Amino acid sequence: MSATPTTTRRTLWIAGASIAVVLLAILAYLFQPWRAFTTTVVDEDLPPVAIASTAEPSTEPSASAAEATTAAEAGPTPSPTTPSPTPSPTTPSPEPTYTTLAEGSFITHEHATTGAASLVEQPDGSVVLAIAALETSDGPDLHVWLTDQPVIEGTAGWHVFDDGEYVELGALKGNVGDQVYEIPEGVDVSKFQSVSIWCARFAVSFGAAELLAA
Question: Which intervals carry biased composition (Pro residues) (predicted)?
């Protein structure tokens, strides 16, 4: 029994609909369009970027020796009394020192991006990347990269950061707010000049900051 035209059309329609569903699922996985409407806010403590100075101890003038008191008309003059020594002021302990090594502001690449980035050496000698007041779009597979590539404005700068050397600092913690990323031990940060919010899925920069020596 041969298939009728109606049956054939129904079969083709079902096959076409199935293919369309699969394609839509793949596109949804790749692009995750709903993330254009989502926001992840991070509010981590940033290192205090300041070099603490040690206060100079202050000194007070020592009291002069008390003058001898005179007795009444009769009797010898008593010996002068020695005052108690003035206690020396306590020298305050130096505060922990944080040093800004390099810093810069984010510019927009594929997505509008603002904020500031700085490399900060901590009191124990370790270095962190501090990102302050970041605002960018949410997106799939976003990472923070420290790179040796220049920051170029416009579309010419969207894809340069995987052309040279880079250090993966981890997945972006949030597309809004303050956040801190540890620099792996042994990384020579002087070799790197930029930081990028990098979308690994599409090999494109959402935004980047040039790091200038402080």
Answer: 77-95
CA-closest candidate to residue 126, choices 184, 53, 167 = 184
Tell me, yes or no, if the pTM score tops 0.85.
no
Average pLDDT over residues 94-117: 95
Mean pLDDT, range 146-157, rounded to an integer: 98
The verdict on residue 86 lying in a domain is no
Q: DSSP code of 125?
A: S
Which residue type, as a one-letter code, is found at position 153? E
Q: How many domains does the chain have?
A: 2
Give the number of other CB atoms < 10 A from CB of residue 17. 10
Same domain, 27 and 106: no
The per-residue DSSP string of 146-188 comes to: EESSPP--SGGGSS-TTSS-EEEEEE-S-SEEEEEEEPPTT--
